[in-house]
Amino acid sequence: MKSTRILLAAAGLVLLGGLAYVAQRDGESSGVNMVNAAKDLVDSLKPEQKTQATFPFDSKERTNWNFIPLQDKDRKSTRKGLPLEDMTPEQKKLALALVQAGTSKMGGEAARTIMSLEAILKEQEKKGAMVRNPQWYFFTVFGTPSKTGKWGWRVEGHHLSLNFTMDGADVIASTPTFFGANPAEIKDGARKGLRILAKAEDLAKDLFASLDADQKKKAHQPKQFPEPGQKTLKPDLGEPVGVAAADMSVKQKDILSKLLESYTGRMPGDIAAEELKRVKDGGFEKIHFAFAGNPEKGQPHSYRVHGPLFVVEFLNTQADSAGNPANHIHSAWRRTSGDFGIK
Fold first, then answer.
1. Backbone angles phi and psi of 71, in degrees to 5
2. What DSSP designation does 228 have?
3. Partners of 290 in the β-ladder
4. CA distance linking residue 102 with residue 270, whole number of Å
5. Strand 54-55 relative to strand 138-142: parallel, antiparallel, unpaired?
6. SS3 state of residue 271
């Protein structure tokens, strides 16, 4: 019965997500949409909910970002913020409208699907050590949502962390941005074959496959890349490794561009344009692409796309909860400096 309720909750996220997309204000910048959506959510909260959901803008919690499950020995969440499970149906609509304000249509769908995958993990793991709950996604607002003054917001849970730093309706930073998926490909059931982060994986494999022998030698790394750094203010990268875009053919550069757009495509159009401008401003020719592991299906692999002003980090090195190898994705878009608006 309990697992049935979780599956129904996951289905409810899909329905609420559609409502959230309709609810987004058309014709406004994403920053204005975020101000309005965050204000609507905060205004809907009862005092005790507001205590959970809101922090001062300068709170250390604002940069305490994580994408793994956070719980104590009693299986109680230690993540800050107000979870969906503690909201009324109307508040859930407002919360998911805020997610949609911070994403594109595709990105919003991906975020809601990531939440719903917790129901699959619940079924696969049965009485596993970790709580798997599609309603365990937590909303936090830092400062006061307004068209003036600094504030920010976050939605976070297992395999999802979206972080926004605002100055009024201006988006100062939309990073770090993390999307993950377990399973990366749903292997059975009504959604069999669904891969919500497919382009981020397939285009990187296409790019690696397009490289000639000398380029592959430069691009291929002896060890898998490490996980994106949770809680960190900036990624720990070192010098760029791999093959530079300056040494790629026109076709290879086109694949690289499409790979980057598979990440920025999750963002609202104006934020995506700003991030792609940073890619250009840093110098497209200076971008490095590096790949580790085996590109064959079911084999562990990871890659990094490292430009002067941004980095993409991707890993598919773990089995999913059913034991299928290399079916568990972690992916992040970050700035090399400037996450959370902090230089």
1. -155, 160
2. P
3. 304
4. 11
5. parallel
6. helix
The CA distance from 115 to 14, in Å, is 9
DSSP 130-173: S---TT--EEEEES---SSSEEEEEEEETTEEEEEEEETTEEEE
The tokens describing 245, both together, are: 């875009």
Q: Tell me which residue of 139, 140, 161 sits closest to 68, measured CA to CA.
A: 161
In terms of Cβ atoms closer than 10 Å to its own Cβ (0-12, 13-18, 19+), residue 221 is middle
- Residue 161 phi/psi, 5-degree rounding, is -150, 110
Give the pTM.
0.93
Nearest to 153 by CA among 202, 145, 8: 145
- Residue recorded with tokens 């949609």: 100
DSSP 273-292: HHHHHHHHHH-GGG-EEEEE
Could you say which residues of the chain have pLDDT below 70?
A: 1-27
Please answer whether residues 136 and 77 qualify as being in contact, where contact means their C-beta atoms are separated by less than 8 angstroms. Answer: yes
Helices (H) and strands (E) in the chain, counts: 9, 13
Do residues 136 and 84 touch, judged by C-beta distance below 8 A?
yes
Percent of the chain with pLDDT over 90: 91
Alpha-carbon distance of 49 to 52, in angstroms, equals 5
Map residue 65 onto helix, strand or coil.
coil
Residue whose tokens read 């495509």: 265
Q: pLDDT digit string (tens) for 263-312?
A: 999 999 999 999 999 999 999 999 999 999 999 999 999 999 999 999 99
